[in-house]
């Protein structure tokens, strides 16, 4: 069944839209608060289709993500009772408890790790507020780690450019279905071990 090729083509078309940078910023902002899809999904094709704009896209993504992280921080600081119900309803209590334990152990270093890695950033922005982490170190660490991640993603995507876009397009079904299989296996293992 061919599914991922059409999605890939649509994503590449959106990456060249005149409002693509605004959408990238919006997705980056809301991802740091609640949205489940990381901005890389837009940053990669945008940087591939316009390599000369990759650094600018990484900067837009970073600024929007840090601003969203600040909102997440204040949600954790002032509205955690409201958020706690959502965490329980969405079945994320165990993940949230684990993140809180990491905060107690690692402090500001965990913000750097969460900002640079594919770990859901929104969990850590809210946890930082709940833990009443010092605000300026939180913002500085978030800015450094998010920029490091997004500039790396953007520059690697720009370096590959259109030549890799064509190669990825030819293999997209294998990549897409392979990712689904790996995710299902990982989930099954996690559920079994748990």
UniProtKB/TrEMBL annotation:
Lineage: superkingdom: Bacteria
Transmembrane segments: 20-37, 57-80, 101-121, 133-153, 174-193
Coiled-coil region list: none
Keyword Transmembrane helix: yes
Keyword Lipid biosynthesis among UniProt keywords: no
UniProt domain VTT: residue ranges: 38-154
GO cellular component: plasma membrane
Swiss-Prot/TrEMBL keywords: Membrane, Transmembrane, Transmembrane helix
Name of this protein: DedA family protein
Protein source organism: Ursidibacter maritimus
Lineage of the organism: Bacteria, Pseudomonadati, Pseudomonadota, Gammaproteobacteria, Pasteurellales
